[in-house]
Specification:
The chain is an alpha/beta fold. 37% of the residues lie in helices and 22% in strands. The strands form seven sheets. Strands 14-17-18-13-12-20-21 form a seven-stranded mixed sheet, sandwiched between helices. Strands 9-8-7-10-11 form a five-stranded parallel sheet, sandwiched between helices. Strands 5-6-23 form a three-stranded antiparallel sheet. Helix 1 crosses helix 7, helix 2 packs antiparallel against helix 4 and helix 3 runs antiparallel to helix 6. It is globular and about 80 Å long. Bound molecules: nicotinamide-adenine-dinucleotide. Nicotinamide-adenine-dinucleotide (NAD) binds next to helix 7 and helix 8.
Length: 501
């Protein structure tokens, strides 16, 4: 039950913190301890979204004309504020979504890095100047803002992912309506409050909290929303893509993954084990880039499995606020049940449960959604545990006989986000780098740990062809205008008036 001290958080629309038109709120509880009520958040509806879009449309008329270097100064101040608030925001994040403090610190750091990167872009936003085909004519292109950007995000990187979207949207001159995931709304509020404190004017960034159908779906049909940028599951992304088609929104989707580490027979095995532990069980396996498959050459398969299983057994599972903890809880009871169902599926499919497989309920763990780090061995590529995104601490180890076979297995899933290879053979490394069809690839490192100044995104059912972060993000949140200036004083016709050299 909420106590009298329970804080109620509000939506942020047109520069004001206000309650939802619905009059309803929802609870946000700590997945490590369901007694810990973090707060009550607005259960927003279509009326709130319409109001937020209206505010963002009005603010766009002025914000698009603010010189980009001035917009960037606000982002630079935001970077400084994120850095000052990093510890507090990390603690809030660990409390609301469970990952360990060092990881939530990394999440806030992404927002700092992205704010710095985009602040720099405010003095670039490069276009092209190219020679004209004609004398006395000038040809160039400029980036133009698009308008109101709808931003819908997942809970597992509740500050990093919004920063990848909202900061480039702002530097390009767009305005924003942001719906954070219902499982991690406090981090969304911390993010928006920081932008406001840095000087973002009223109406430029608006926030509505709530669930997907109530507060996310109304954005998709709003004609005032010109860009929809989404991070979440492939099923939701598909529905969003379809819903946005009738109003011709520009749609940017970053979705699920089933990422593979390839371990060749010449790999440094302890290094590969380190990578598989971090890639598989970091963020409790709840990363889009999680290494949920490890494809191991049969020559070293037994040795790798022995060391990998031994290491997984030593992982300390618990509350992420405890500095000793190495792996936190699943985000919700429903997600934990999904993990347990996949353990049954793996057993029924004939894979060997090498370690884990059980919910943890000893002592304080009973109040959270904890599960043992789990490894299946003798997995074949057609098993569901080798193909479907589980989004939990479950890793499938698949034997292979050659690099070609390993690459074929790595590619034989619907997703294409990240992959890696452990090998000492540079030829193997380059062949895999070229032939594994993913948006991210690592050599002698796990499938996670992207940096903001390289493009981030996937292929196939992971993405719809755009990329986040880096200047690739500017392509999502701006559109090109090509400009021709004729200073000849007469009609000149390109392709027709071919001049003498
Ligand atoms: P989800 O698809 O259930 O929810 C994501 C967001 O969409 C939430 O804010 C939710 O409220 C909203 N939503 C749900 N239904 C909606 C609807 N009908 N209309 C509009 N909005 C709706 O995903 P999740 O469980 O929060 O996140 C986990 C998924 O996100 C995994 O599949 C993971 O791989 C993926 N993910 C991908 C990346 C990436 O960059 N590729 C990064 C992080 C997470």
């Amino acid at each position: 039950m909420p106590s009298s001290r329970t804080q109620t958080y509000l939506n942020f629309i047109n520069g004001e913190w206000i309650p939802s038109a619905s009059g309803e709120v929802f609870e946000n509880r700590n997945p490590a301890n369901s007694d810990d009520l973090i707060g009550l958040f607005q259960k927003s509806n279509a009326a709130d979204v319409a109001r937020a879009v209206e505010a963002a449309e009005a603010a766009f008329q002025e914000w698009r004309l603010v010189p980009a270097p001035r917009r960037a100064e606000i982002l630079f101040r935001a970077a400084q504020l994120f850095a000052e608030r990093k510890d507090a925001f990390s603690r809030d994040m660990t409390r609301e979504m469970g990952k360990v403090l060092s990881e939530t610190g990394g999440d806030v750091q992404e927002a700092i890095d992205m704010a710095q990167l985009m602040a720099g872009e405010g003095r670039r936003l490069y276009g092209q100047t190219v020679p004209s085909e004609l004398r006395n004519k000038f040809a160039m292109s400029v980036r133009q803002p698009i308008g109101v950007c709808g931003i819908i995000t997942a809970w597992n990187f509740p500050m990093a992912v919004p920063s990848w979207k909202i900061l480039p949207a702002l530097v390009c001159g767009n305005t924003v309506v942001f719906k954070p995931a219902e499982e991690a709304p406090l981090s969304g509020i911390n993010f928006v409050q920081t932008l406001v404190d840095a000087g973002v004017p009223p109406g430029v960034v608006n926030l509505v909290t709530g669930d997907g159908p109530g507060a996310g779906a109304p954005m998709l049909t709003q004609p005032g929303v010109k860009v929809m940028s989404f991070t979440g599951s492939t099923a939701t992304g598909r529905a969003i893509n379809q819903a946005c088609a009738s109003t011709f929104k520009k749609v940017h989707l970053e979705m699920g993954g089933k990422n593979a580490i390839i371990v060749m027979d010449d790999a440094k095995l302890d290094l590969a084990v380190d990578g598989a532990i971090w890639g598989g069980f970091g963020t409790t396996g709840q990363r889009c880039t999680a290494a949920s498959r490890v494809i191991v050459h049969r020559q070293v398969y037994a040795q790798f499995v022995e060391r990998f299983v031994a290491r997984a057994k030593t992982l300390r599972v618990g509350d992420g606020l405890d500095p000793q903890t190495q792996m936190g809880p699943s985000i919700t009871e429903a997600q934990l049940i999904k993990v347990m169902e996949y353990v049954h599926i793996g057993e029924d499919e004939g894979a060997t449960l090498a370690t884990g497989g059980t919910r943890l309920t000893d002592g304080a763990l009973a109040k959270g959604f904890f599960h043992e780090p789990t490894i299946f061995t003798d997995v074949t590529p057609k098993m569901r545990i080798a193909r479907e995104e589980i989004f939990g601490p479950v890793v499938s180890v698949i034997p292979c006989d050659s690099l070609d076979q390993a690459i074929a297995i790595a590619n034989d899933v619907e997703y294409g986000l990240s992959a890696s290879i452990y090998t000492q053979d540079i030829n193997h490394a380059f062949a895999a780098m070229r032939d594994v069809y993913t948006g991210l690839f690592y050599v002698n490192a796990p499938t996670i740990d992207a940096e903001v100044h390289l493009p981030f995104g996937g292929t196939k059912a992971t993405s719809n062809g755009h990329r986040e972060a880096e200047i690739a993000a500017l392509d999502v949140f701006s559109e090109w205008k090509s400009i021709y200036v004729d200073f000849s004083g007469k009609l000149q016709r390109a392709q027709m008036d071919l001049e003498e050299i």
